[in-house]
Design a protein that fits this description.
Shape: rod-shaped
Number of helices: 11
Largest sheet: none
Number of strands: 0
Oligomer: single chain
């Protein structure tokens, strides 16, 4: 989280660099070299790594110096029109374009780095949150199942199932919860059957004694009928609610809202955790979620591989430029060697091998100049006579 303000400052400063260089170019074309130098100096302060801005500043400073040394004409010939717009050398315009291109490229790289950092930080935060949440959920589920086990031992099956339902809210697809629920329901059915048998035996004894046999039979049958009707109504209501939840989850899934669809299924599973269609849909949605994650991962890997290939191509091109520059050094063609290295800086201005090669060229050029100065009638250029 501490890197966000630094990125914001960097992108804001780099954005200002492009604006300042454009303003400087406009001032140069208007012949306002001093004002242009001020704008270039501001740009260099905000982005010291823009090497073309340094060259641009040197060229503009040379123009300012030459404009001060030129003789002034106090008179104009008849019919001549004074001009206030100087004719600029093509090299100056090229360097200006390169400096502006470097500023825009630096801004693009800073924005890309900011985006990559933000995405990575977000993924790491989400992963940590999921891990912490999973640990908390497991602890909660253990607590619910422990309480349910205590109620099961006390034969309080309804409260045991309430604790199971609470555990389902946290993880509807948990196999451990499903197995415990089946154990509770199986134990409840066995206990109910045993109690019914005991009740039937007691009823049979009472009938044998002649205590209201027919009345007891009618009462029992009526009670059984009411229980069957109530159980049927409850099952129908449960199925209706489950169907509504399934239909809504399918609509959300078709609309591309996968997380909302899973949440709706989880809510439906609270009322009917063993519904086969709910379980099947939950598995289907999880698989779709995993496919999407795998597709995003594959796309990221492709992008990473493309970046690696691009970097290798740049390094190969830089190596060829350095080899060409070294050959020119051996031929004492220092100016051409510097131009070759300058073109290579467009590929990677911060490459250490390029900076080292440039230092070799400058050192060789200075040694050649000192040698020429020691020769009284020797050539004054940095290239040998042909």
């Amino acid at each position: 989280m501490s890197k966000t303000p630094e990125f914001r400052r960097s992108t804001e400063q780099l954005n200002e660099v492009a604006t300042l260089l454009k303003q400087a170019d406009k001032l140069v074309k208007e012949g306002k070299y001093s004002a242009a130098l001020d704008e270039i100096a501001k740009a260099r302060t905000r982005d010291p790594r823009n090497l073309y801005a340094v060259a641009y500043e040197d060229r503009v400073r040379s123009l300012l110096k030459s404009s001060h040394t030129k003789p002034e004409k106090n008179t104009l010939t008849a019919g001549a029109q004074p001009t206030s717009i100087p004719v600029l050398p093509p090299a100056l315009e090229q360097i200006s374009n390169l400096a502006l291109a470097q500023a825009e490229r630096s801004l693009a790289e800073a924005l890309a780095a900011e985006h990559a950092e933000r995405v990575q930080r977000k993924n790491e935060d989400e992963r940590e949150k999921k891990q912490a949440l999973r640990g908390t959920i497991e602890a909660k589920i253990d607590g619910f199942l422990a309480r349910a086990s205590e109620f099961l031992q006390k034969e309080d099956y309804n409260r045991a199932l309430d604790e199971v339902a609470r555990a389902y809210l946290l993880d509807p697809a948990n196999a451990r919860i499903r197995e415990f629920e089946e154990q509770v329901r199986s134990t409840r059915e066995k206990t109910r059957s045993r109690r019914d048998e005991d009740r039937a035996k007691r009823e049979q004894k009472r009938v044998v004694k002649g205590e209201g046999f027919w009345e007891a039979q009618l009462t029992r049958r009526e009670k059984e009928r009411r229980e069957r009707d109530a159980s049927k109504t409850a099952r129908e209501l449960q199925e209706t609610r489950a169907r509504q939840g399934i239909n809504k989850a399918l609509s959300l899934f078709e609309a591309g809202k996968l997380d909302d669809a899973l949440a709706e299924l989880a809510s439906t599973a609270i009322n009917d955790p063993l519904h086969t269609e709910v379980v099947a849909l939950e598995r289907k949605f999880r698989e779709a979620q995993e496919r999407i994650r795998q597709e995003e991962l594959a796309f990221y890997r492709i992008q990473k591989e493309e970046q690696r290939k691009k970097r290798e191509a740049i390094l190969r091109a830089i190596k060829k430029h350095i080899e060409s520059a070294d050959r020119l050094i051996g031929q004492q063609r220092f100016s051409e060697a510097l131009r070759v290295i300058t073109r290579a800086f467009v590929l990677d201005p911060m490459n250490e091998d390029l900076h080292a090669c440039q230092s070799r060229i400058v050192a060789a050029q200075e040694r050649g100049l000192k040698t020429d100065e020691n020769q009284q009638n020797g050539p004054t250029t940095d290239e040998p006579k042909r």
